[in-house]
Amino acid sequence: MQNNFRDVRKLVDESSRIILTTHVVPDGDAIGSVMAFSEYLRLKGKDPVIINHSETPFNFKFMDPGNSIKVFYENKEESISLLENADLIVILDTNDLKRTKSLEKYIESSKAKKLCIDHHTGLDPGKFTLYISNTEYPSNCSILYDYIKDDDEKYLTQNISSSLYVGIMTDTGSFRFPRTTSDVFRVCADLIDKGADPVALYENIFATTSKENLKLMAMFIESFEFYYDNKVVTGVVTQNDFRSLGLDIQHIEGFTSLLMNIEGIKIGIVLVELKDNIKISFRSKGDIDMSRLAKEYGGGGHKNAAGSNVKETTIPELKDKILKDLKNYI
Hints:
The protein is of the alpha/beta class and 330 residues long. It has helices at 5-13, 28-43, 76-85, 104-109, 140-151, 158-171, 182-193, 198-206, 211-222, 239-245, 255-260, 290-296, 315-325; strands spanning 18-21, 49-52, 69-71, 88-92, 113-118, 130-133, 225-227, 232-237, 267-273, 278-284, 300-301, 305-310.
């Protein structure tokens, strides 16, 4: 489900004040998307501005050496002004404006045209002027690769290729998840040929674990509880865990894999206590559709990887409710 690349390119070419953004707590695909698309626009003579709700996670900061990504609340007045005066706002790696958090109401009220480029389920076409949406893609950066290459291969520079490679690598779980097809490897081979360094990029992202991070991981593992004949596992991270180690949400990258690597596990649930809500990550194997369950909690995502954020509840209450709902999935 998407508009023609040519129509999207015409919209972009006709715009001059362009804002890019992505979802709260951005992952590698989100940061890869905004950085690659921003660089692409610059090569086309544009001067885009990236505004995100969340700070860039520590292990992805190397992708933005010039600190070009603005955080909404670090200069709220400037951020609001930029959104209000934009003529195009591009939402990348999410189709749900709620997931832009602090930017949501300003995106909705802005007179700017809205473009969505995303690979998740749940798109509401009425919210966007144009959109590129295809849930068959393994990552948002995979869509951007096709879009940029369709325009002109000269735009696949080393920087853009590196950003796209990060998005594809991280959203396929380092090439382990179900949508890791032969096409994924062909695309990545092309990106490597164009300058992406797979060894350096992997080490920058994953070889960054501190002692505190290992302690948090140990706390998380200690919280594991098993249900439904050991087919379901839950893991919890609390605010006290974060505070005791001086860490935050950006330091739980990869925790879902710890659950899903356990022998016999079909469903993994991660509950993370944030300051004003609880973040749920739903993971599954095979044909178990966690995106349906995530929608029941106001979220969404993919069949095997979905999530949501829930307010006004506690972890014990939320976990009990999820476990009851899982009887329809296991």
